[in-house]
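Lecture notes, unit on protein representations.

Consider one protein chain, 293 amino acids long.
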Amino acid sequence: LYSVETLAHVDTLCLDKTGTITEGKMKVIDIEKYDDSILPDTFENIMNSYVKTTDDSNATFMALKGYFKGEAKYEKISDISFSSERKWSSVTLKGIGTIIVGAPERLVEKAGIKLPQCVVDAQEDGKRALCIAYTKENIETEELPSLNIIASVILADPLRKNAKEMLGYFKTQSVDIKIISGDNPITVSTIARRAGLEDYESYIDLSTISTDAEIVNLVDRYSIFARVLPHQKSIIVKALQAKNHKVAMTGDGVNDVIALRESDCSITLPDASDAAKQVSQIVLLNSDFSVLK
């Protein structure tokens, strides 16, 4: 009851895109392969081994596991799990080399190429894009060597059916919406437009700022924060509170926990991580934001 009362005084709502505005159910809809002749075996055999041996289990990697369903042909030597800060993961396979999967912007830099056009098109259409890279070297540290991009993966994540209704309602209540995401800014902006956010063009890529201290001066200027690192979510919440805003935060992942705890009212969904549900004050049992009216 206290949390519901607090919600009545909220003037700013921070939304995590994936799993909140979208359903969080990733699905691979297209894979574009490039020069895979450098691979010692077929792309499919190697990717089957990659998805069967990686320890990653977030929505993106579950989508890859749902697409590559073959048996693992190669043994894993080592791996580096995905992190939101690094935005890539890798698996070194015996007799093959290393497969790296991650954010296109991070991997093409090491490959010395421009973003593939299919990635640009997908981001402008609100899709999530990944690149798959290869090196003969074993990777055991977080420093990437020179890479070859061997494929791009395009994933879709449907908009929640009540997303427009949710954002429209909060607008009528004079609640300012801030969307926070680790995804590409163009992708987030497109999703926000489809969800009915009027300020969908007001976005910033936080990977372009020099220090976290700059965030304090950005929170009132932008509606969308993209390429956000986990610790920056709580910085955004605290910066808004420092400007006398009453802040509600929605999130469903482990990376959202600190920001959820810092907010004045924390909201999550039933299919969220256990950690997010433990710290949240309100759990929307039917994933229906209309009950907040």
